[in-house]
UniProtKB/TrEMBL annotation:
<dbReference type="Pfam" id="PF00106">
    <property type="entry name" value="adh_short"/>
</dbReference>
<dbReference type="InterPro" id="IPR002347">
    <property type="entry name" value="SDR_fam"/>
</dbReference>
<dbReference type="InterPro" id="IPR057326">
    <property type="entry name" value="KR_dom"/>
</dbReference>
<protein>
    <recommendedName>
        <fullName>NADP-dependent 3-hydroxy acid dehydrogenase YdfG</fullName>
        <ecNumber>1.1.1.298</ecNumber>
        <ecNumber>1.1.1.381</ecNumber>
    </recommendedName>
</protein>
<keyword id="KW-0560">Oxidoreductase</keyword>
<comment type="function">
    <text>NADP-dependent dehydrogenase with broad substrate specificity acting on 3-hydroxy acids. Catalyzes the NADP-dependent oxidation of L-allo-threonine to L-2-amino-3-keto-butyrate, which is spontaneously decarboxylated into aminoacetone. Also acts on D-threonine, L-serine, D-serine, D-3-hydroxyisobutyrate, L-3-hydroxyisobutyrate, D-glycerate and L-glycerate. Able to catalyze the reduction of the malonic semialdehyde to 3-hydroxypropionic acid.</text>
</comment>
<dbReference type="InterPro" id="IPR036291">
    <property type="entry name" value="NAD(P)-bd_dom_sf"/>
</dbReference>
<comment type="similarity">
    <text>Belongs to the short-chain dehydrogenases/reductases (SDR) family.</text>
</comment>
<feature type="domain" description="Ketoreductase">
    <location>
        <begin position="8"/>
        <end position="184"/>
    </location>
</feature>
<dbReference type="InterPro" id="IPR020904">
    <property type="entry name" value="Sc_DH/Rdtase_CS"/>
</dbReference>
Length: 264
């Protein structure tokens, strides 16, 4: 039997293509064993075979539809019980197009299940397991639309705002446990998510579209630098810091015993 790598095992959801597949490649390069999760088992097996041969690591493939609660519960239990897992990349997600008033609500419900409920359940399981071990890393893939919801579909933007908020809150809860957490907020990234969601991305200016490999490399650099929130395309980190500072300025006045004078 092969020995478990000192880094442990990285669990990557949505690992059959795009951002998830690149995270798998980059983490393999860093010496992690891998547990790759997605619906497309054939593509997962192809990826796994390549990574085993290229990096001499153990790679397990798990076919799962993470919009199916029963399958999510199985993966959640694996996270809670498998002490070799030391890193979670909460990447699986789907986008949506169109107005909320005209939306197919069944599709949006599946979006919420995948982007919100599944992310929460897996983050909870990882937080419990990692905190018990006193080590581990949770990476949640959000989006810049969390900061600019007027520019995109309402439900998708809201789901990614949730992921951002979840990460910030969980960071506070995990303080002192030895567990690291990061939210990654990509801009437009060249992946299959657009086609799968029925969105024509051909009209997006080329200067706004980042290659997925560049995005993941920047995200991992941010993780190495200890960032809680990583925005790969943002040139000046001070802009994000100012955004956070403005929130803290408001904080003392967000809950008071009397309404503001302008409402009287």
């Amino acid at each position: 039997m092969n020995a478990v790598k000192p880094q442990g095992t990285a669990l990557v959801t949505g690992a059959s293509s795009g951002i998830g597949a690149i995270y798998a490649e980059r983490l393999a390069t860093r010496g992690f064993d891998l547990l790759l999760v997605a619906r497309d088992k054939e593509r997962l097996e192809t990826t796994a075979s390549h990574l085993r041969n290229a990096h001499g690591i153990q790679v397990e493939v798990l076919k799962a539809d993470l919009t199916d609660k029963d399958e999510v519960l199985k993966l959640e239990q694996r996270l809670r019980s498998d002490s070799s897992i030391s890193l979670l990349v909460n990447n699986a997600g789907v986008a949506a197009d169109g107005l909320l008033a005209n939306a197919d609500m069944d599709k949006l419900e599946r979006l919420i299940q995948l982007n919100v409920t599944t992310v929460t359940r897996l983050a909870s399981a990882a937080a419990a397991s990692f905190a018990k071990a006193g080590r581990g890393t949770i990476i949640n893939i959000a989006s810049v639309v969390a900061l600019f919801p007027e520019r995109f579909n309402a439900t998708y933007s809201a789901s990614k705002a949730y992921v951002l908020s979840l990460t910030q809150s969980l960071h506070a809860e995990l303080d002192g446990t030895g567990v690291k957490i990061q939210a990654v907020l990509p801009g437009v990234t060249r992946t299959e998510i657009w086609e799968r969601s029925g969105i024509d991305a051909s009209g997006i200016p080329a200067e706004m579209v980042m290659e997925a490999g560049e995005m993941v490399d920047a995200a991992l650099a941010g993780l190495d630098q200890g960032e809680l929130i990583t925005i790969p395309s943002l040139p000046d980190a001070g802009e994000w810091q100012a955004f956070v500072a403005a929130r803290h300025v408001m904080a003392p006045n967000l809950s008071r015993s009397a309404a503001a004078s302008r409402y009287k």
